[in-house]
């Protein structure tokens, strides 16, 4: 299966156009959160993805809530948060929000590590783990060099050993990747990223 994946679109029209164009040769498209900005414009952000005709999996970021994404997502899209879907024999588990809780204030849609850990217990058997937040220690450093990734996401990756862990959230690490045992971790960013599963 040829997977196109991206994160942190933040309503960037030109980036969305690139993703929609690339989707024509994908088998599956995955969006790992932060489609809009500060909980505003989610319907417009989803409109930028019109033209994606392949199966679409979306996970909320911290810039939109689960409910907001569910309301605005294109018909037929799979919105995952603590849930999974199987597409052509590939099981994809998603968890959204900022993990751990961000310093951004009340607008940010976040989870505590404990909340995330409880949800991630349902991820056993996943081939692909999509988390808006990166795992602790990989592609999770701020501009100041501080590691702000999720311990719960890292533990889940160690336990589940999915083939891929796709994330975003930390803009300073877009494009970075690493390994957790046999799992490839990639902080996607708002560009076209290709994976074969």
TrEMBL record:
InterPro entries documented for this protein: Calcineurin-like_PHP, Metallo-depent_PP-like, UPF0046_metallophosphoest
Calcineurin-like phosphoesterase domain location: 1-172
Gene3D superfamilies (alphabetical): 3.60.21.10
Top-level taxon: Bacteria
Cross-referenced PANTHER family: CALCINEURIN-LIKE PHOSPHOESTERASE DOMAIN-CONTAINING PROTEIN, METALLOPHOSPHOESTERASE
Protein name as annotated: Serine/threonine protein phosphatase
